[in-house]
Every structure is written in structure tokens, then in C-alpha cells.
Amino acid sequence: MSAPSNPTTFPLQGKVAIVTGASRGIGAGLALELARRGAKVTLVYTSPKSGKLAEEVASKIESLGNGSTSRVVQADLRQLDAPEKIVSATREAFGDKIDILINNAGVLMNRSITETTAEDYAAIFDVNVRAPLLLTKAVVPHLRAPGRIINMSSIGARLGFANLTLYTASKAAIEGVTRSLAQELGAAGHTVNAVAPGPTESEMLDDVPKDIVEAQLKQTAVENRVGTVDDIARIVAWLCGDDAKWVSGQAISASGGFLKL
Is 180 annotated in the active site? Predict the structure, then answer.
């Protein structure tokens, strides 16, 4: 039996959301949290080997029993046709209007500047910057006011870490994109924000040098611990709701007090 409709329990009921990088880690958590709040979610994954994981997330959404549902879409965000593929699949599944876009997918590379190549630059920036920009472009004509766009940044956007230059530069770029799009899309009633996690339980955290993580945890005010996916998902889901309608153009530190913006 489906759960009864309740705007307090299901504040995103009737909303249509797209989450990239939704097969695992933070992205899977974001998708599940939006669904728990009533949204219908397009789950985007890139690697064919992640298809089973994405289907498992979809199964969890269906089991919620609150009217939420999902559509699984495989799209390589390095390809220029990926945004239109994602938007077309979403419209086919849920109708012409889209309410929420979460640009979560990202890649990280631990490499010194002397080892860095032009191909490395493209590999990072094509996914971390170009893809969110072009996906936003594809979504905006269908974005129902008040639309919500959240770009996943990182504390690295404001801090310097050795051997992570390309990654931190890409996250600084996405924060710049966020601020400009907030101005451009605000007249239509849309908000655009970025969320910057600190060290968070995920596969990507395994690629960050251990000494960097340990140093950050010593300065993390809340329990000196790594963040959980749920910690991040609740902040993002709040930004998607009506309670955050007066918040736009912001980069919100989701780091347990480590990074103070």
C-alpha cells in the first residue's frame, strides 16, 4: 500500500529530478533522499559496469511505497550528446517538466603537475565542468519554476592540495558557474547553489591521499569524523525544497565545520 500524501512528509511529491553519478556513493544517497521526500528521479550513470548498481538504487526507490519512481539512464558525460539523451529519457518517463537537477557526477585524479597532460585536463574538466554546464543548458527549457539546480563542489575549490590541482581547479570553476547561473536564471524563479562536502564516505575518498584526509579530520569541528552520505544528502534535499527558496548563488560548506566560507 502506498503511503498517504502529506506535504510535510513528502515535500518533493510531484517533483521530477535528475541526479548524475547516481549509481553509488553520494549520488545514490542523493537520489534516495529525494525519492524519500516524494520526487521522481532519473538515475544517471556512466560506466556500463555500474548498471547493476543503478538498478539496485532504482529497486530501493520502488520499495519506498510513497509514490516515488525512477528511470535509469546510461550516459557518458564525456560525450556531447549525453545531456540531450538524459533530458529526453526524463521527459519520456515523467512528462515535459523537470524541477530539480543535481550535477553530482565527478572524477578525481591524484597527479603531480610534472605528470599532468592535456588529456588529463580534458578528462577532468569535460566531466566536472563542461557536463554540468551543458546538462543545465539542456534542462533549462523544461525547468518548471521554481526550479532547483545544485552543483556538487568540494572543499578543494577553496583550498590547495598537492597533486590535486586539476580536481580543485574544476571545483572552483563549478562554483563560478553556480554564481553566474544564479544571476541568469533567478528572474524565472529558479535557484542555483553549490554544495561543498569535506571528506565523505565514498569510493572517491579512497583516491585522496591519506595524509590530506587525516589532516582535515583533525580540524573537523563535529566529532573529528568523516562525513556520511546522509549528512550530504539532507543538505542537498533541503536546497531542493520550498524552505530554501531564498537561497541562491551560494556555495554551502558541508564539512562538519572544517571549511568556513
Answer: no
